[in-house]
Structure to design on (292 residues):
């Protein structure tokens, strides 16, 4: 087992992932701009580094899980970034959700010095990160995937090798499209129920015994019933993910009308200052039940 793992990004997903890596027995080196997050994982045994460059110099496998492409590029290629500290034979795993073109560009620069990269975005939200049950979709060289597999198994349950670099990101876009449109269906069903004066909790229970049963109905449906829009996965991040999916589709001259419509709804809520809420807050776009 590779002993020294680096992790950059201790947000809603990264922090519980760090805890699970520590539980699995890895020596974990971490970097984040959030001092409170650093202190929390340091208290559990993680080693805090002063920069991504320093972290890359001390570890064998480095994981990044960051909000978007610009942050990943800055951490990987910027001043005091990972590229300045990494050496031949090491592996960078980007578990962020970003565009496949950015992954390919980073991959080329790391390969030029003899290091390798994988793109391995995740699905499962905060609950999956905390439980170590994430779904992980991986693109890159098969040999590097096999090297990283024990690390993936410490933080995820469903681990899928998808093919060449960038294939993980395309698969994540597929996941986000399917989840978003399923969520929209649950939201519209609940909006109809509430408008008719029917208890949404009872509707959720009734639907869970039929063909409409899904994890979205179970988890997101429960948040809607309770009107609990505390972030498990922030609306602004889902908006970003659908932007990436639309871009991937446009590159292939593919029309995704449902995705376009839902993306516009998400963008409107983000523009209205609701971006920090859970993406289930889309329910408020239909029945105006969100409080300012």
């Amino acid at each position: 087992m590779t002993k020294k793992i680096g992790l950059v990004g201790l947000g809603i997903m990264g922090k519980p992932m760090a805890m699970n890596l520590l539980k699995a027995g890895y020596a974990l080196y971490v970097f984040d701009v959030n001092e409170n997050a650093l202190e929390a994982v340091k208290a559990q045994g993680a080693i805090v580094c002063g920069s991504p460059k320093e972290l890359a110099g001390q570890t064998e496998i480095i994981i990044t899980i960051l909000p978007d492409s610009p942050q990943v590029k800055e951490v990987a290629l910027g001043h005091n970034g990972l590229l300045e500290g990494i050496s031949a034979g090491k592996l960078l795993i980007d578990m962020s959700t970003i565009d496949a073109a950015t992954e390919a560009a980073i991959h080329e620069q790391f390969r030029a010095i003899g290091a390798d990269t994988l793109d391995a975005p995740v699905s499962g939200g905060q609950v999956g990160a905390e439980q170590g049950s994430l779904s992980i979709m991986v693109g890159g060289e098969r040999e590097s995937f096999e090297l990283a597999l024990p690390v993936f198994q410490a933080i995820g349950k469903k681990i899928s090798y998808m093919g060449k670099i960038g294939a993980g990101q395309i698969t994540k876009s597929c996941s986000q499209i399917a989840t978003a449109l399923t969520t929209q269906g649950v939201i519209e069903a609940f909006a109809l129920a509430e408008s008719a004066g029917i208890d949404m909790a009872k509707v959720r229970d009734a639907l869970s015994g039929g063909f409409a049963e899904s994890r979205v109905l179970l988890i997101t449906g429960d948040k809607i019933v309770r009107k609990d829009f505390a972030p498990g996965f922030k609306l602004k991040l889902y908006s970003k993910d659908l932007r990436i999916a639309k871009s991937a589709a446009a590159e292939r001259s593919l029309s995704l009308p449902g995705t376009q419509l839902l993306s516009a709804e998400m963008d409107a809520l983000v523009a209205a200052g609701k971006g920090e809420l859970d993406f289930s807050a889309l329910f408020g776009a239909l029945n105006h039940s969100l409080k300012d």
Remarks:
- The two ends are 50 Å apart (CA to CA).
- The longest helix spans residues 167-195.
- DSSP finds 14 helices and nine strands in the chain.
